[in-house]
Amino acid sequence: MSDDHTTTSTPGWTPSLSGAQPEAGPLRPCVVLAALDSPIPDALHHALQAADLAPRIEHDPRLAMAEACLLRRETRERAALGLEDALTPPLILLSPPEGAAGEMVDTLQRIVPDIPVLMLVGEALGELDAGGPEPTADLVPDEIESLLGRPADQAHQGQA
C-alpha cells in the first residue's frame, strides 16, 4: 500500500455543476430557482461556466429568496473585510416569474434591489426587466408573513 494521497481526475468530469475547473480560480456563488421535476439545461451549465458562477439550486421561491439574501450578506461581510469584491451574487430563474416566483421577484426588487435577477435567454444569462414598483426599505407586516408562508391573519392572532 502506498501512502500517496494524490488524486486523479477522470477525463470529462468536472467537480462543479457549472463545469468550471478548480485551477481556474474561485467561482462566485449564485442561486438558481429551478423546477423540481425539470433537469437543469445544458445551456445554463455553459452560461454559468462562462460567468464563473457556482450555482446553489433551490426549488422553492421562498428558499431561493432566503439563500440569495444570505449570499448578499456574506458577500458584503467579506467585502468589508477586504477578502473579495462587493459584487452581489445573482438569482437566476429558469422559467418566467409567475405565481409564487413572480411575488418573490417583486418583493426582491422592492426590498433588496441590488440582487440581480437573471434569466436564461437562449444560451446566455440576461437581466430580468425590473418594470416593477420603486424600491422601498419598508416592509409591511403582511409581506413578512407571506414570505414566511403564513397567512397574515394568523400572525396577528399569534401576537395577541
Summarize the SSE layout with pairings.
Layout lengths: L27 E6 L8 H9 L2 E6 L2 H20 L10 E3 L6 H12 L5 E5 L2 E4 L13 H7 L4 H8 L1
Parallel strand pairs: 1-2, 1-3, 3-4
Antiparallel strand pairs: 4-5
Describe this structure in words.
With 160 residues, the chain is α/β, with parallel strands linked by helices. It has a domain at 25-131. Helix content is 35%, strand content 15%. The protein has helices at 42-50, 61-80, 100-111, 141-147, 152-159; strands at residues 28-33, 53-58, 91-93, 117-121, 124-127. Strands 2-1-3-4-5 form a 5-stranded mixed sheet, sandwiched between helices. A hairpin with a 2-residue loop joins strand 4 (117-121) and strand 5 (124-127). The radius of gyration is 19 Å and the shape is globular. The termini are far apart. The model is unreliable at 1-18 and 131-139 (pLDDT under 50).
Strand line-up in the sheet with most strands: 2-1-3-4-5
Tell me the number of strands: 5
Question: What level of helicity do the residues show?
Answer: 25-40%
Radius of gyration: 19 Å
Q: Structural class of the helix and strand makeup?
A: alpha/beta
Query: Largest sheet, described in full?
Result: 5 strands, mixed
The portion of residues forming beta strands comes to 15-25%
Based on Cα principal axes, name the global outline.
globular
